[in-house]
Amino acid sequence: MHLNAVPIQERPETVAFAWPVTGKLHRDLRVDGYLAEKVADREVFELVQDSIGWRVTDDQWHVVSKEVVSNSMVAIFHAGSPVAIACGLSRPSDWTELAWVAVAPAHRGMGIGKMVCGAVVAGLLEDGRSKIYGSTQDERLSAIKIYLDIGFYPLYRKEKVERWESICQKLGIPFSPSSWRWQPDA
Predict the structure, then answer these.
(1) Which of 108, 98, 170, 112 minimizes the C-alpha distance to 141?
(2) Is the pTM for the entire model greater than 0.85?
């Protein structure tokens, strides 16, 4: 399956990205003073989500706990407190969605987003789950930079090419469709 065929239900305000199915996580994403741990704890999940202003409802937690891939929820701890969280959610056709990524504001800009996303991706790859995708809003430039930095590719969508050009310009990185394996006719 080509990356363009990821079974994602995209919203108009988002851009999507996917892991290159044969890709490997090639970086050590640890940050001194921070510890990554696999968790399955609603309290830890909610503490981090709450730190970014997101209140997790019972219905949302029910969906997350039902869809989360076993052992894929990772929290980053600093001085014993959770400061970041992310997980993989099971999707059709053996795909996994990198989701619910959150980093407490006081810990942003230190590599913690890369650390938590990298830990989730590494765990999924170790489990044989190489079909990974996600999406985020255009204005979340820090998140987009994290996904690109750890190895995700933007997904080709004809109606979003100009948006990717704009995102790349804002991030100060090259707009590189050929290196992203874009195949407009795939």
Answers:
(1) 170
(2) yes
